[in-house]
Amino acid sequence: GYTHDAQCVTYEGPDADYRGQEICVGSNETAISIADVTDKENPQAVSTASYPGFAYVHQGWLTEDHRYFLLDDELDEVSSNGNASTYIWDMQDLDNPQMIGTHRANFLSIDHNQYVKDNYVYQSNYTAGLRILSLDNISSGELTEVAHFDTFPTNNNADFWGAWSSYPYFDSGIVVVNDISSGLFILKPNLD
């Protein structure tokens, strides 16, 4: 598949072979891909990985220590009639990423974009709004929802209405959520 979305970082994770290199993790419709793009004239493919039942490998984000990658599949809820799922990848060896768990939410809404800040992942889930999950047990392949704000209270169906994306990186702790149907929400989560 083509690259729909990618996160590029100066890699500081556990794989010593790539530490200090500019690494991009792409969500490529059918798989994740990892590339070393340090040399812009000669980018190098590092690896690709997929999982059974993929529908549309859409977007993901690395944890701040670059050890794990959290991935959403924008169409798996529609194709399998299942709940929103986050696929948890261990990136200890960039040449061989391993999926170590799947977080299944208790709603059908389609997941769209997610971003990691500190020990939390901020997920936009269309009709189910913003969901904030703790990374405390990520090494066991588990996430735990600790807060949410439903920007589309009409339903939690697997439809393309509601929360499209969020931005949790303001120093103030403010999180903004962009909702296709209702506009911009400005939130201040209390995660203490």
User: Largest sheet, if any?
Assistant: 4 strands, antiparallel
Instruction: Detail the poorly predicted runs.
Output: none
Gap from first CA to last CA: 41 Å
| Discrete helix count | 1
User: What is the tally of beta strands?
Assistant: 15
What structural category characterises the helix and strand content? mainly beta
| Helix residue percentage | under 10%
Which terms summarize this structure?
192 residues, mainly beta, four-stranded antiparallel sheet, 3% helix, 45% strand, globular
Outline the secondary-structure elements:
Blueprint (H helix, E strand, L loop, with lengths): L4 E6 L11 E6 L4 E5 L7 E6 L7 E6 L5 E6 L2 H5 L4 E6 L7 E7 L8 E5 L2 E6 L3 E6 L9 E6 L13 E5 L7 E5 L3 E5 L5
Antiparallel strand pairs: 1-2, 2-3, 3-4, 5-6, 6-7, 7-8, 9-10, 10-11, 11-12, 13-14, 14-15
Description:
The chain has 192 residues and is mainly β. 3% of the residues lie in helices and 45% in strands. The chain is built from 1 helix and 15 strands. The protein has one helix spanning 76-80, and strands spanning 5-10, 22-27, 32-36, 44-49, 57-62, 68-73, 85-90, 98-104, 113-117, 120-125, 129-134, 144-149, 163-167, 175-179, 183-187. The strands form 4 sheets. Strands 1-2-3-4 form a 4-stranded antiparallel beta sheet, with no helix packed on it. A 4-stranded antiparallel beta sheet has the order 5-6-7-8, with no helix packed on it. Strands 9-10-11-12 form a 4-stranded antiparallel beta sheet, with no helix packed on it. Strand 2 and strand 3 form a beta hairpin. The longest helix has 5 residues, at 76-80. The radius of gyration is 16 Å and the shape is globular. 40% of the residues are buried. The model has no long low-confidence stretch (mean pLDDT 95).
